[in-house]
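Troubleshooting: if your tokenizer reports a length mismatch, compare against these two reference records.
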Amino acid sequence: MRLLLTNDDGIHSPGLTAVYEHLSPHWDVTVVAPASDQSGVGRSRSDLSYERADAIEISDHEWGYVVDGTPADCVAVGLRHIPEADEIDLVVSGANNGPNVGSYILGHSGTVGAAVEAAFLGTPAVAVSGYDHETYFPEDGDSSFDAIGAATRDLLSLLEDTAVFDGDVDYLNVNIPAAETDTIAVTKPLADYDTRVVEGERTTFESNYWATHPVEGDGFPIGLDGYEDDYPAWSDRAAIVDREISVTPLGTPQSVVDPPSDVVATLDRYPLEKS
């Protein structure tokens, strides 16, 4: 199996290093990662943004390539440009520094955005995020991501040569604790989210990513103990509160909803009669 490895925290991220070191002894791994931290950019592409130059720089790296662009840029380069592109079987994105759970956050995550870009380009993907139950973010340093890298390796070993991506599943969103665990849960993203717009010297946002509870600390929960029993058992948030590996199967594109009859009837009245 030939893997394309990317992330949104940048080429120097300890999460990327840990995953590469655990995967490369077992599979052919080509890294195409951003030159700098691209957290929170979602699926932004340099050629589809008015705020980004419609050009990127690609440089060689001992593990593959570095792209002066977004995670989605990296996936496009990895699947459509580099010499290894036609050999890629699976894209792995991560490991992110901090969890990516809940429907709202998945749309903002550069880690997940890379996986979605891969799915649109016809290659299955696994987005990996790491979390610490006590500190939320894994501590800096490769050692804190060691269990996360090892679990990623074991998960890919289970997935290899299976039909998991042969149906409606295009990518997996995986959240792995920094402490070793024997428990894995198949989950769905929870949609709860809220935000406040706060007037002050400058208008700011206070966003609650854990919407059933006030956010503790400076915008993120310090630990997850205070959230026990807050979320439905099937949800990704419940799994990480319970110190489990959360695996959420997802598909692209966005869900298509059959229009209700009243919507159809309303639109049939267009154009309005001019008075």
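Reference record two:
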Amino acid sequence: MNIKGTITLKQGRDHSVKRLHPWVFSGAIQQTTDGLKDGDWVEVQDVSKKTLGFGHYQKGTITVRIVSFGAVPPGNSVYRSKIKVAFAQRLATQVISEYTNAFRLVHGEGDGLPGLIIDIYHDVAIVQAHSAGMHLVRNLVSDAIKMALEEKGFSVSAVYYKSLAEKSESEYLLGMAGVPHIVLEHGNKFYVDWEEGQKTGFFLDQRENRKLLGEMSKDKTVLNTFCYTGGFSVYALQNQAALVHSVDASEKAVVMTRKNLTLNGFDPQVHHCVASDTFDFIKDKKDVYDVIILDPPAFAKHKDARHQAIKGYQRLNTEVMKMIRSGGIIFTFSCSQVVDRQLFYDTVVSAGIQSGRQIKVLHHLSQPADHPVSLYHSEGEYLKGLVLYVE
């Protein structure tokens, strides 16, 4: 590993790094070695020249993502050692079982590898790099995945790199696998298409929330809005929901939902899957549903869009609170990182007031154990959810 330069922090701007926060912001930097390129390894030091850590450089607001804290430069084995630790945590927290073979192996900063996402679908690993540094080491990461999993007796038949960059194509770094691929989640079967699907092909972060929804669905009529590939719908039906309707604006998503219902033995003609805007679908459905899931895509991906996002969450929750049956249950979520837990809660409170109904909070929901949040990087908690009882 070749350290290409040094980043020196301003006086008093090194506290967050000393508290093990992995991001170095451009405004905290006093001096930068000339000629650095995106993805270069750099040393981060304070004004006294004390080394604080090493990470990947990238021009932008977040200028360095620290991979290794301390004065000792990491070698190429850093990826293998951190992936090995991450896998041990998944085994220890029993994320993986004979009933679940789809899980997140590496969750960026939460696993000490900022900018790196690795999802496992049975014996196929999907890699996404959210930084230039992780993009450049994708082959090292692929080798590390295979080694870490096979040491514990898990086979890896393929590693697929799903590129986020316009100038870089997605590719198989190891082997090749056909899509869609069938995976298990709490015994439920799902098709996953990592080549054409959103993100890595499936939203693994909702696994435990889907399980809770299923447990509350027996004999209920359920509406799953923004259904994507029908995860919540399958769980509701497996737990004997009386009827489930799945809605998504994407025809592709609806087609995959129908396939997943059929895969699990349910008739998508009975449990309708509809390609429609959610607001259009719900406007004439008052007192039809006992349980409603609101899991929209991120309404705000950056701070500038936050105000509009809040208005969107408020309107959506208000309309659903008004239309759900008395005694109904709402699962409502936000996956927008820039909308924190308190702001989301306050927005739902505002929606409740506008609906004019009495509402109780039954559960506060978040992401599961394979999406860990570093104690020193609270930004890693992006998924917020509430389970509401509407009187």
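Descriptive notes for reference record two:
- Residues 148 and 233 are 34 Å apart (CA to CA).
- The chain has ten helices and 20 strands.
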